[in-house]
Specification:
The protein contains 20 helices and 20 strands. With 476 residues, it is an alpha/beta fold.
C-alpha cells in the first residue's frame, strides 16, 4: 500500500506516546488503595462486556467492593477511553494501563510490543465477542459512489487505521481480489472518525473500518456497504489483555475483572435491548446501531479462548511483518486461559462446554407473531423493533419480517429498526439497507452488490428488488 509519509505507521507513533495524560500510576498503590486502570474503546462495541457495558453496570467496582468488605484493601478503578487499540497498547508498554480490550490485529501488536520488558508483558486472558466468518470488519463507499466491487478500488484512495483489524481486512481482501495491497490503492492511515469525514467529503473513495463505524455510516445514510468481511470466511474477535506483572501482584483483581465480564455478558444475553441502550448512552452511538451488533444473532458474545479463534489468530501473525518492525509473537505463550477457567468455576459455569460451542450463544428465539410459528432457524431469523417497544419482536425468516413491517405500517406503528441475516453469510444487517432478491415465494436479503450478483448468477430466476418494493409486494 502507498502510505503518505506524514502518516506512516501511526501505530509506532502511538506507541511512542508518553503517559503524561494519566492521572494514576498503575504500578503503585497509595494509602492502602490498589489502583486498577482499564483501557477500553467505547465505540468499538464488540468490547462492551469488558468496557462500555461493564463500566455502565458497575460490575467490576461491585466485585472489588465485595473483596474489600471481606477484609481486603480498597480498590480504585480508572476507565480510560480510546478510539483504537494502539494507544491502549502504548499505555500498557508504559505500565500505565493494567487491563485493556481491543480487536485481534491490535492484540497481535499488543503482544509483540509489550514483551520487551517483563513489567509491561501482557497475556490474552479472554474474548469479548467474535464472528465466525469475519463480518466485524467491513468496507464502505459513499452513498452515491459508482464503485460496485473491490476491483473498482484499484488506483483509488482508501481510508483505514494501520494496525487495526480493519487494516488487516483491507490487505487480505485486496490480495484475494488480485490487487497488490502495497501499490494497488493509496491508503490514508486515519482514525475512524477522520476517515468517516474524509469519505463524506470525497477525499477518499472508500473506508475500511471495524464495528461500529460501517453500520453507523450506513445507518446515517452517509455510506453503503461494498465489502462484507465475512467474504474472507476467517473468524475475527476482540479480547482482553492483562499485564502479567500486575496480575501476579494482584491476582484477585484479574479474577474480579473476569467474573465481572461474565456478569456483563450474562446481562447482555438476558436483556439485550436494555444493554444496547446503556451502551448507546455510554458511547454516543445510536441504539439502533448498537443493537445491530449487540442484539441476538449479531456478534457472538462469549468469553472462552476457543481453538477456532486461536487458530485464526495464529494465521494473522504475518501481518506484523507487513506493517513494520515488530517482534515475533508466540501465540501459545501469549494466550493464558487459566484465570478465565477459574472465573468460570467461581461463576458456576462449565468452561469446557462453552469452548466446545462455536455457535452464537444468544440466537434469536421466540415465536413469530405474524407467521404464528416458533423461530427455529437462527440462520433465517430476524427482528423488528417498533417504537415504544421494550423488546424487539422475532421474525422466523426475512419474508415474514417484511410482512411484519408491512403490517406495522398499516397499523400506523413506527418501525424503529428491522434486522435480517444476509442470505449468503448470515451477517446481521439493517433490513432497509439490505439489497433484496425476489425468488419464487420468498425474499432474500444480501449485504453487498457482489453477493446479489453471485446469487443471481446461480439462480437466474431471481429478481433484484428494492426494500420498499419488497415490503409493498410481499403477500400479507
Amino acid at each position: 500500500m502507498k502510505y503518505r509519509p506524514a502518516r506512516l505507521i501511526a501505530v509506532a507513533a502511538s506507541l511512542a506516546l508518553a503517559a503524561a495524560g494519566c492521572s494514576l500510576d498503575s504500578t503503585s498503590d497509595s494509602a492502602g488503595t490498589v489502583a486498577v486502570v482499564v483501557g477500553y474503546q467505547s465505540r468499538t462495541i464488540n468490547t462492551v462486556t469488558a468496557g462500555t457495558l461493564l463500566k455502565a453496570k458497575g460490575y467490576l467496582e461491585q466485585r472489588l467492593s465485595a473483596l474489600s468488605a471481606k477484609g481486603g484493601p480498597k480498590y480504585r478503578v480508572e476507565w480510560q477511553d480510546y478510539d483504537t487499540g494502539a494507544p491502549i497498547t502504548a499505555q500498557m508498554v508504559a505500565q500505565k494501563i493494567d487491563i485493556g480490550s481491543m480487536g485481534d490485529y491490535p492484540l497481535l501488536i499488543n503482544g509483540s510490543r509489550t514483551q520487551a520488558a517483563e513489567k509491561s508483558r501482557t497475556e490474552l486472558v479472554s474474548v469479548t465477542g467474535y464472528q465466525p466468518h469475519g463480518s466485524l470488519n467491513m468496507i464502505v463507499v459513499g452513498q452515491d459512489s459508482p464503485v460496485q466491487s473491490l476491483r473498482d478500488l484499484a488506483g483509488r484512495k482508501v481510508s483505514s487505521s494501520v494496525g487495526s483489524a480493519s487494516d488487516g481486512l483491507l490487505r487480505q481482501a485486496l490480495s484475494r481480489t488480485g490487487i497488490d495491497p502495497k501499490s494497488g490503492v493509496e491508503v490514508l492511515n486515519q482514525q475512524p472518525q477522520v476517515g468517516a469525514s474524509a469519505l463524506e467529503s470525497g477525499q477518499v473513495q472508500a473506508l475500511s473500518q471495524f464495528v461500529a463505524w460501517p453500520g453507523l455510516l450506513v445507518f446515517q445514510n452517509k455510506a453503503k456497504l461494498l465489502y462484507d468481511g465475512a467474504e474472507l470466511n476467517v473468524p475475527t474477535f476482540h479480547g482482553v489483555v492483562a499485564r502479567r506483572d500486575y496480575a501476579k501482584d494482584h491476582p484477585e483483581v484479574l479474577d474480579a475483572f473476569l467474573q465481572a465480564q461474565l456478569d456483563a455478558t450474562d446481562f447482555l444475553h438476558q436483556r439485550p435491548l436494555e444493554a444496547a441502550k446503556l451502551v448507546a448512552d455510554g458511547s454516543g452511538l445510536p441504539p439502533e446501531v448498537v443493537y445491530l451488533y449487540n442484539g441476538p444473532g449479531g456478534t457472538s458474545f462469549d468469553t472462552p479462548l476457543k481453538p477456532q479463534l486461536i487458530s485464526a489468530f495464529k494465521g494473522d501473525v504475518p501481518y506484523l511483518k507487513s506493517i513494520g518492525d515488530f517482534a515475533d509473537l508466540d501465540i501459545d505463550g501469549f494466550v493464558n486461559d487459566e484465570p478465565l477457567r477459574k472465573a468460570f468455576a467461581e461463576h458456576g459455569a462449565n468452561y469446557d462446554a462453552a469452548v466446545a460451542n462455536f455457535g452464537n450463544p444468544a440466537p434469536i428465539t421466540g415465536t413469530d407473531p405474524v407467521a404464528n410459528r416458533p423461530v427455529s432457524d437462527p440462520a433465517l431469523a430476524g427482528e423488528i423493533w417498533l417504537d415504544g417497544q421494550d423488546a424487539a419482536t422475532p421474525a422466523a425468516d426475512p419474508t415474514s419480517l417484511l410482512r411484519a413491517v408491512k403490517l406495522a405500517r398499516a397499523q400506523g406503528k413506527k418501525v424503529r429498526a428491522a434486522y435480517v441475516p444476509d442470505a449468503e453469510f448470515g451477517t446481521r444487517w439493517f433490513a432497509d439497507k439490505a439489497l433484496w432478491v425476489h425468488a419464487g415465494d420468498t425474499y432474500l436479503p444480501f449485504t453487498t452488490p457482489a453477493a446479489v450478483q453471485r446469487y443471481l448468477a446461480a439462480h437466474p430466476g431471481g429478481t433484484a428488488v428494492s426494500y420498499e418494493q419488497a415490503v409493498g409486494e410481499v403477500r400479507s
